[in-house]
Amino acid sequence: xxxxxxxxxxxxxxxxxxxxxxxxxxxxxxxxxxxxxxxxxxxxxxxxxxxxxxxxxxxxxxxxxxxxxxxxxxxxxxxxxxxxxxxxxxxxxxxxxxxxxxxxxxxxxxxxxxxxxxxxxxxxxxxxxxxxxxxxxxxxxxxxxxxxxxxxxxxxxxxxxxxxxxxxxxxxxxxxxxxxxxxxxxxxxxxxxxxxxxxxxxxxxxxxxxxxxxxxxxxxxxxxxxxxxxxxxxxxxxxxxxxxxxxxxxxxxxxxxxxxxxxxxxxxxxxxxxxxx
Length: 277
Description:
Helix content is 72%, strand content 0%. By secondary structure, the protein is mainly α. It is globular and about 50 Å long. The N and C termini lie far apart (38 Å).
């Protein structure tokens, strides 16, 4: 049992689970726009997510403890390097437009973790994008939207129309809602200077916001030019399940409530769509 727990913790802490979630959302986009499953873009997204997330999560830790890293962190570093190699391998298979946009979002990820900007630009005396008051959740959602909606469509030379824009808005709202349980969980640990949504409006109002955003996410489907019954049903399922997780989120949630189960919701969404297709 202990070995299984260690494996599960590595699976979560090394960002494999979140990578599967991002891949699932990307795959959802391919299904929604009736594009043939592309192993190159899905593989790139998988390895890029592991690379980006681990860089953001562990950059500060590794920077200050590089000579005395714990075994688990050294293992994650080696694993992240392998993921980086995988990301580079699949990146060279992408088209030029995709690489241009990826370079921009790669820079955003870099600035999100690395303190390069002058301290005077931040009222809370932090130097990276991750610690600018109230910005964290929106940066993450913005990157997820590009990665899971626009990148696969750009790669396939799909015309960016109003349906794509609507899908981007839907995905942005859904990612925001998926992050609310994480922000509620971290209330006891986040600095007040981060000004997260629960810190600013409280847990109850955060859940109300989550419910409202989910309703907008669901009903936006009906303004698209073509309405698919499969998409509507899948959206109804993911809206309902996400709603449950948001309403039951609290500060003392279990270790795996957000990191494992909430993060699994995009995978559930994909499985529902695949079952309906």
